[in-house]
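Task 17 of the worksheet. Students: predict the tertiary structure of the chain below and write it out as structure tokens. Keep your answer in the requested format; marks are given for formatting as well as content.
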Amino acid sequence: MNRFRPTTIDELIEDRVARGVEKALAPYLDRLAQTSTTNHDKASASEPLAYTVKDAARALGIRRTKLYELMATGELSYTKVSNRRLIRRDVLVSLLHRHESTTTV
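Model answer:
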């Protein structure tokens, strides 16, 4: 194992501090990783099951006209209840996944 060996007092202090911070944060990072993987696509009780066009556009950060275009082309499904178009939360998440950029910085 090629482990970094500090040669100066500054490097020694930096190495000790880094290991201490790493050790102190480990339980929190583990808990965060478990939470994010188990609840990634699950909706919480406070999130609506469906959004109006206005709210869906706001949630996605796009204009309503773009949302209407996506619905007109069939790329975004919706349910019409009375005079309102409702878009399910899972449909919005699916749209985001389909348009997700695969490039990395």
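Marker's comment: The longest strand covers residues 84-88. The mean pLDDT is 78.
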